[in-house]
Amino acid sequence: MNILAIETSCDETSVAVVNAINGKFTILSNIVSSQIKIHRKYGGIVPEVAARNHAKNIIPVFEKAIKKAQAGKTKIDYIAVANKPGLITSLLVGVETAKAVSYVWQKPLLAVDHVKAHLYANWFSSAADYQMSVVRFPSLGLIVSGGHTQLIYMKDAFSFKIVGETLDDAAGEAFDKVAKILGLGYPGGPVISRMADFGDENKFQFPLGLLHSGDFNFSFSGIKTSVLYLTKRLDKRIIERQRADICAGFQKAVVDVLVKKTYAASKKFKTETILLGGGVTANRKLREEMQKKSLAENIKVLIPPVGLCTDNAAIIAAAAYFKVRKKQFSHWSKIKVESN
């Protein structure tokens, strides 16, 4: 089957065509138009600006995806779209486009939760064509993004149970806010990661939020506040010289909590595999530490290819594949959008 998928939940406009044959996925196209440069000057995402740019980009991106995949109406079997969670006005652009295509082409429509879809990125290996990799169940998913930090228990590919989540800031949000405090610009994740490579991660100690709370919830507001207070105490000239050290220490604290809580939950729920998903999983430190812990604990960890960590339509198609198997279709006239 060929699934055409659309993703516009935040600030990436993406359309993909994914082929699924006997449980094997191949990405035929996965076009992503990013708005990072547009929102950088605002220091963050402006919802209405994002929506207007989705409206501007969706048709060109759609056409490019169809052309690259060499797949038109007759070669597409299903239409999938991210309808939650996200920015309402952004989601509407993708959903209305998908509804129109579903109606005109007379193809079944599937509504997909884009946060859960991040875990399906693990069904693709790092091969050039992102062919399907093997996932063993039960699994524990760690979703780490700008809007979400969750631990999700999956007894199979169709079920999701949240067993831990952030009680305040998401990890990606903390990266963005700390970058702003340090005057590093937006988005914060990539720039903090780059600067951390040149810093001493043990120079400054930051709090490990809820590490010993006895549950699997997270908190990243404390570490953000700790960085803020540190910068107020230090001379501005010292901050300038030690930005890399602050970035390294901050990154280490966030990664330590994510890794330790994830593996503790995996042991608790006796999972066969740990799955990572979300934009922050592109962070090299997190990927390295998760893999090190995997070897030490003898628990399999799957980490998506970097190109599939951030929002993209290929993961929407992968999630839709499993909804097809459950026949969880949505009529074009009834599908609705849901915000964060």
Task: Describe the protein.
It is a single chain. Helix content is 42%, strand content 19%. It is built from 10 helices and 10 strands. The chain starts with a strand and ends in a 15-residue tail after the last helix. It is an alpha/beta fold.
Detail the topology: elements first, then pairings:
Blueprint: E1 2-7, E2 12-21, E3 24-34, H1 36-40, H2 47-69, E4 78-84, H3 88-105, E5 109-113, H4 114-117, E6 139-144, E7 149-154, E8 161-165, H5 171-181, H6 188-196, H7 221-233, H8 236-268, E9 273-277, H9 284-297, E10 300-302, H10 313-325
Parallel strand pairs: 1-4, 4-5, 6-9, 9-10
Antiparallel strand pairs: 1-2, 2-3, 6-7, 7-8
Helix pairs in contact: 2-3, 5-6, 5-7, 5-8, 6-8, 7-8, 8-9
Strand numbers in spatial order across the main sheet = 3-2-1-4-5
The main β sheet shows up as: 5 strands, mixed
Number of domains: 2
CATH architecture of the largest domain: 2-Layer Sandwich
Strand percentage: 15-25%
